[in-house]
Design brief:
Blueprint (H helix, E strand, L loop, with lengths): L17 H11 L2 H6 L4 E2 L10 E2 L2 E2 L16 H7 L2 H21 L6 E3 L22 H16 L9 E7 L12 E2 L3 H17 L5 E4 L3 E2 L2 E2 L5 H4 L10 E2 L5 H7 L7 H11 L12 H12 L5 H17 L19 H13 L2 E5 L11 E4 L21 H9 L4 E4 L3 E6 L5 E3 L4 H5 L22 E3 L5 E5 L5 E4 L5 E4 L5 E5 L11 E6 L2 E6 L5 E5 L2 E5 L5 E8 L1 H9 L4 E7 L19 H13 L3 E6 L13 E5 L6 H10 L33 H4 L17 E10 L3 E10 L5 E11 L10 E10 L4 E9 L5 E3 L4 E3 L3 E8 L5 E9 L9 H4 L1 E2 L5 E3 L1 E5 L6 E5 L4 E10 L4 E10 L2 E6 L4 E5 L12 E10 L2 E9 L2 E9 L1
GO molecular function: hydrolase activity
Organism: Streptomyces spinosisporus
Family: Belongs to the glycosyl hydrolase 3 family.
Length: 945
């Protein structure tokens, strides 16, 4: 036994294990103090010397929202590196900066809400930039690396405590707080849970954050999966932090519970330990918990369980052992090493999609650079403030020389004429003059959010605005000195923003045709612009009709810039705050029409045109006429330098696509269709060739693959092959290993990533790669038995440079458990365990647990259950159903044999189940077909002999 240190209460004794110390501290807290800990902002307990604590510090690709920090590439860009070692080092740098920033500002938290491991199933998801990949194994590999970096290597104390987002099956912003993801068991286990599970099992995760949406009809914040799956994966205490406002959504938006007391109690019992709601005001949550306790909806044990999990994280972060915490006093902030790492990550994230030999560019190349994003270093909602900045244009100036680079923004320039014949005008401003540099240049960042600037007026000549078209009619207007038009709370229009941004963007407008002219509608308020005596403003009445006078077309500027160029570089892409972001899904894969216009103009002027896409997500672009195409996510502070080094050949590109790029919107499933198997989604199931496949990416070198061998042992398949650099430059290659079942009896992935490795090879160098693939990687979730099963038979192993660029193949025979018919007489059929479905949605059986199935639109649905064994015969079928309607049963697609109609149905109570029965005469093995008609829920079906 360890002796207690004298004169210290046990919770302060460093000689005791954390569990005993937590128990001691928990026993010293009053019930009111424990309840106060349940809000995101837990107050100090001064009588015990316990400080205040808050959960939540955004750190997706750098410390966010807390001021200047090193900004690394967006998460999807880190996923594109396919480099776990690099991502671990990025996580390490981010956690060190969090520690260093906290030493100067106690608002910086050490419980970091990152990474996001939601799978990039659908490329129109507004938060595509936040995830790593559409593949669960690649996602978990990158996430595990990042969390290990965030956690640190110390065996006891954590540098930061990472929380994974967002549990579970969250891939849409449209109706995100009220939509339900229908996820059948195979998709749940083989796809959505897998990304979380493998990262949690790696041991560097402090907890998870539930998502806003519902899964199978039940809000994630009361999900039984938190207990059944998440907490079963580890012996470590995991902290579950609610998403912001989600506890109130259970009543206010989702109407899932009648009172906030019921909702809060249900979330706490389900496993939510910290409630993020009502900002810093904890009184609402504290009051709800107290009333729930007084009403008998909660016990003190329920509260203790949540507080214990919080304290476990606080102890691991060293809060109660400041003298022993090895991370205390960390000062690694904006170091040369972090700057170099940001550049390395940006370089490794660049994907060369196509190259007909135009790249790399010779040092003496004259380059015309076209496109507004070429001179931008865009941030997103989860970025820190830039300390250093490198745009593509600046990178090219530095690498090729400013005299060899010509730039055109490629925007239309306009004046807006009023009905009175005057023009909108940005007046001179003393406040603006105050922030001009020595050479008279304005730093518009110093004007962001200011309301002391004069509003727009009108005069005889007006101001020439850059009209920037972001697609789908969304516009921004920028003054010649770089300031964007914005609308403040007083409704006045000012040139007062350095960039579009904010939770509600106040810098976007729409031009609406009106009587031969246009009205200018401000998107943030929904109001039209009008001219008033006290300045230009937005209002609900008297909109001003404008004539749009084009002073220069984008195409003309492109023609001028490209006239003397050897090569044209068109930089296109998105602003992460517009048309695809948190709260807003995209509606199309296509580039904005304005960007397509300037791309056509550039190609017409010079066929040697390179397209560089800088974006948070994939596009559908016509590449046939382009000799070279690259893509990179917004690459953080070193984005421009990185792109220039790749274009010049200083770095050979080796990024790989972390998700499929489709040819058109017609290739996409419905945004809310989460059935990746039935909907043939992601590279695992999609049929036909995409625009660019998962794992695709080219190099300036060439690589040969050889010597593939595979050996099966009791627990794994051991695979090895060689990769040789057959080119003339040192370059990275991302070797990828896929597997597929050769003779599957049910739908299995066309191919599935099981291992990968990024390596660096000099010209002529050869390296042997070895992988140990566990047999569990070949298993699937067998709904007939409700568990994992390895199907015996041949499996093909495919090694190569992408999911479609397969260089080597071999086949192995694996032993497993042969399929068996469903023992439906003994076990019955759980409704959600279907093999195929049409028109069905999985819904909640009760508010606490279980699944049922209902017609998705209240009409009809068909369910198919393969190979059901009726043994020597059954004479009766029963169905546990709620609501009104009928269930029709047939075998093997034949005639209806039984109709089950519930009696005494309670149409107003979806959870009032009753048993319907009918006679049936069946024996042997058959496929069961069930047709559900009307507004009912089917929970299970049983058979009796």
């Amino acid at each position: 036994m360890t002796a207690q240190t004298p004169h210290l209460p046990p919770f302060r004794d460093p000689q005791l294990p954390f569990a005993k110390r937590i128990d001691d501290l928990l026993g010293r807290l009053t019930l009111d103090e424990k309840i106060s800990f349940l809000h995101q902002f837990a107050p100090a307990v001064e009588r015990l010397g316990v400080g205040a604590f808050r959960t939540g510090q955004e750190a997706l690709h750098g410390v966010a929202w807390m001021g200047p920090a090193t900004v690394f590439p967006q998460a999807v860009g880190l996923g594109a590196t396919w480099n776990t070692d690099l991502v671990r080092r990025v996580g390490e740098a981010v956690s060190k900066e969090a520690r260093a920033m906290r030493a100067e500002d106690e608002r910086v938290g050490l419980n970091v809400w990152s990474p996001t491991v939601n799978l990039l199933r659908h490329p129109l998801w507004g938060r595509n930039e936040e995830g790593y990949s559409e593949d669960p194994r690649l996602t978990s590999a990158i996430a595990t690396a990042y969390t290990r970096g965030l956690r640190g290597d110390h065996p006891v104390f954590w540098r930061t405590a990472p929380v994974l987002k967002h549990w579970l099956a969250h891939n849409n912003e449209t109706d995100r707080a009220t939509s339900s993801s229908s996820v059948r068991p195979r998709v749940l286990h083989e796809y959505d849970l897998r990304a979380f599970r493998e990262t949690v099992e790696a041991g560097a995760v402090a907890g998870v954050m539930p998502a806003y949406n519902l899964v199978n009809g039940r809000p994630n914040h009361v999900s039984p999966y938190l207990r059944r799956h998440l907490r079963a994966w580890t012996d470590q205490e995991l902290l579950v932090c609610s998403d912001a406002g989600a506890p109130s959504n259970l009543v206010d938006a989702e109407h899932y519970f009648g009172t906030h007391e019921e909702a809060t109690a249900a979330a706490l019992r389900a496993g939510v330990d910290s409630f993020t709601d009502h900002g810093t005001d904890s009184s609402q949550i504290v009051g709800r918990v107290k009333r729930a306790y007084e009403q008998g909806l909660l016990t003190e044990d329920d509260i203790d369980t949540a507080v214990r999990r919080q304290l476990s994280v606080r102890f691991r972060l060293g809060e109660f052992d400041p003298d022993r915490d090895p991370h205390a006093g960390t000062a690694a902030f904006d170091t040369p090493a972090h700057r170099a790492l940001a550049q390395e990550a940006a370089e490794q994230a660049i994907v060369l999609l196509k190259n007909d030999g135009l790249l790399p560019l010779a040092p003496d190349t004259r380059i015309a650079v076209v496109g507004l994003p070429a001179d931008e270093c865009k941030l997103d909602w989860y970025s820190g403030t830039l300390i250093h900045r490198s745009t593509p244009l600046e990178g090219l100036y530095e690498r090729f020389g400013a005299e060899r680079v010509e730039f055109a923004e490629g925007v239309d320039r306009i004046r807006l004429r009023t009905s009175a014949g005057t023009f909108l005008h940005v007046p001179p401003s003393e406040a603006a003059d105050e922030v001009r540099g020595a050479e008279g240049a304005l730093d518009p960042a110093l004007l962001a959010g200011r309301t002391d600037l004069p509003p727009l007026t009108t005069d005889a000549t007006g101001t020439e605005f850059a009209l920037i078209d972001w697609g789908e009619g969304l516009l921004t207007l920028r003054a010649p000195d770089g300031r964007y038009l914005s609308v403040a709370d007083d409704g006045l229009v000012r040139a007062s923003a350095d960039q579009p941004g904010g939770w509600v963007v106040q810098e976007t407008f729409r031009l609406e045709a009106h009587d031969g002219g246009h009205l200018l509608r401000h998107v943030g308020t929904g109001r039209h612009v009008r001219v008033a005596a006290d300045g230009v403003q937005v209002a609900d009445t008297d909109p001003e009709p404008f004539e749009v006078v084009v002073t220069e077309r984008a195409e003309d500027a492109v023609a001028r810039a490209t006239a003397q160029a050897d090569v044209v570089l068109v930089v296109a892409g998105n602003d992460p705050h517009l048309n695809g972001r948190e709260t807003e899904d995209r509606t199309t894969l296509r580039l904005p029409e304005h960007q397509e216009r300037i791309l056509r103009a550039a190609r017409a002027a010079n066929p040697r045109t390179v397209l560089a896409l800088v974006s948070s997500y994939p596009y559908a672009v016509e590449t046939a006429a382009l000799p070279a195409v690259l893509w990179t996510a917004h690459g953080g502070q070193a984005a421009g330098t990185a792109l220039a080094r790749v274009l010049s050949g200083d770095v050979s590109p080796a990024g790989r696509l972390p998700q499929t790029w489709y040819e058109s919107d017609a290739d996409l499933p419905d945004l809310l269709d989460y059935d990746v198997i039935g909907g043939r989604q992601t590279y695992q199931y999609v049929e036909g060739m995409p625009l660019f496949p998962f794992g695709h990416g080219l190099s300036y070198a060439s690589f040969a693959y050889g010597d593939l061998s595979a050996r099966v042992t009791d627990a794994a398949v051991h695979v090895s092959f060689t990769v040789t650099n057959t080119g003339d430059v040192t370059a990275d290659e991302v070797a990828q290993l896929y597997a597929r079942a050769v003779e599957p009896a049910l739908p299995r992935p066309r191919r599935e990533l099981v291992a990968h490795r990024r390596i660096t090879l000099a010209p002529g160098a050869r390296q042997e790669l070895s992988f140990e693939v566990p047999l569990s990687a070949f298993e699937f979730w067998d709904v007939a038995r409700g568990g994992w099963r390895l199907d015996p038979g041949p499996y093909e192993l495919l090694a190569g440079a992408s999911s479609e660029d397969v260089r080597l193949r071999t086949t192995v025979l694996l032993d497993g458990e042969p399929p068996a018919p469903r023992p439906v007489v003994r076990r019955g059929l759980e409704a959600a365990d279907f093999d195929e479905q049409s028109g069905a949605a999985i819904v909640d059986r009760t508010k606490v647990s279980g699944d049922a199935v209902a017609p998705a639109a209240g009409g009809s649905a068909e369910l198919v259950y393969r190979d059901c064994d009726f043994g020597d015969g059954v004479t009766e079928v029963t169905a546990l159903v709620a609501g009104e309607g009928v269930v029709e049963l047939s075998l093997d697609g034949g005639a209806v044999l039984a109709v089950l109609r519930p009696e005494n149905a309670a149409p107003d109570d979806p959870y009032a189940y009753t048993t319907a029965a009918a006679g049936i005469d069946a024996e042997g093995v058959h496929d069961v077909h069930l047709v559900l008609r009307g507004p009912l829920r089917l929970a299970r079906v049983g058979f009796r002999g």
